[in-house]
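#data-curation
PF: Archiving a pair of folding outputs for the training set. Convention for this channel: one message per protein, sequence first, structure tokens after, nothing in between. First:
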Amino acid sequence: MTTGDYDNNGFADLVVSGTSVGNEPGYGWSYILPGTASHEKPLPITAVRGGPVVASGDINRDGYDDLVTGEPHSPDDGGENMTGGMVGVYYGSPDGPAGRKGPGSPPVCWTQNSAGVPGTNERGDGFGTDLSVGDSNGDGYAYVAIGVAGEDIGAVADAGAVTVLRGSAKGLTSTGALSVNQGTKNVPSTVEKGDKFGGQVSFTDPNGDGRFGLLVSAPGENTNDGYVWVFSAGRSGLTTSGSWTYSLSAFGGLRTDALYGAAIDD
């Protein structure tokens, strides 16, 4: 679930997402319940393609929240299961979330095959495993962090990665795209099979400076102990410099098989 004021009427709208079952299983759908001053009458519910992962924020700084959806195991047009995943963007408008041709149309879609996006779309990558939206450099344009927990790093299977795309006046852009994994310079730890780095992502601003850093988890780290990485942000956006990591043991817990970071509250 996520909330956002997609029509900029001053009331938060609720999005509930999931995947289809039956004859065409695996397709993501999201249901938008608009917020109003009164809930005495049944509210119209709008269904849009995309999910079960969702996040919200103002990507193009127009005052309308935008809806971002993730289908990490999206069936392709031919119905085959387990492609590399897809992320969709619906931009806010007076009529609510709007796709590439306006309200009621499909979203603006991003995959690892999109121009400028790091990586290559491969079955099982899980592009869109998790999503978070936040402004990392304080310019008012929100970034989108995309978990790619099934990404192979070299010959290491399911090591995982995170892709970060920037917001702009024209919407989400691959210009200046960032890809981070455990083999990236200044990132603690090493690339290992099954770590699933990027299993969860969450922008956070603990010091309240208006520049959101990023939490990234790898629930499979150290054979399912799980760890969380902390990346700082500044005027140039996110940086791996000074990044650090912690596990459940930092809080006095037993980390063995804890799957720490399997869920991060956004």
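PF: Second:
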Amino acid sequence: MPNSEKCSNRMPKPLTISIAMCTYNGERFLQEQLDSFLAQTRLPDELVVCDDGSQDGTVAILEAFAAQAPFPVRLFKNPQNLGFSKNFEKAISLCQGDIIALSDQDDVWLPEKLERFEQVFLTYPEVGYVFCDASVVNENLRPLGFSVWNFYNFSWVSPQIFLPGKFSKMFLKIRAIAGALMAIRTNLCRLIFPIPPLWVHDDWMSFAGGMIMGVVAIPDKFNKYRQHSNQSFGLKMESLINRINKSYSISSKHFINIAAKYRHALRTLTNNKFNIDKFYFLFFEEMILHLTIRANLPKKKISRIHIIFNEFLSGRYHKYSNGLISAVKDFTIT
């Protein structure tokens, strides 16, 4: 792992670890995920589960597990459906450990996951969150031949540590963090919650958390990231041609929404008076400008030429979009 600030010679204070899990009609794969918690070489200190109104056997599975688990299991049944992101925000807020590891209901963890994450947090007290890679598997846990990091073109082969702001900047193009691959310090969550409008929980934690504290990326595949027909989000490898075609289907509203999302984020971080390097604020303000320009290009192609040309010369197409491909798309799209 790259050099970081030297830790004190004193023994680090032991950490407590919570798992925050959200469930909704997850009976099909839930037991395998719960069993993988029991197989951890470092057991969690608690499991907090928020069920979002399951109509199947999910709650019964959780109650049976809670009765036998060697660690406390706290199950909360939402009286009304909160939705994926708000349910995770609730579960995280109810956790009492120093570290919170997020969990989906349909994956499987490798036994060393919590132990390895804890080692990183103990070694690097300046780090706010840690995330790992995952093997992408089918519903029967058979590997599909790629990992989550492969999917997002995130390719480090050794652990990496990022100073505050640096990973949030990279996050724009990499987008390699699913909440299920992350563990975060509880005190950092307290700083960045509640989650602002337009953001989902793991995107906000990745971005805002990385602006305030350091981040460590571990290349080990500590999750089996299951793909199946009932999941909220899935990964499917696409050809370059398909990706280019998809980019042409993106409307100006998409850029407006992203600009609004980051404008709101910067306002939130500014209002909370975090000590964040000005460089990163300027970086994201420039990104908002670039997206606003792309969203408001004239309908007549001939009127776009000088705007696109100037934006390309500024370097912002390469910095915030996909370079020449995005510039050509903006000129040719009708």
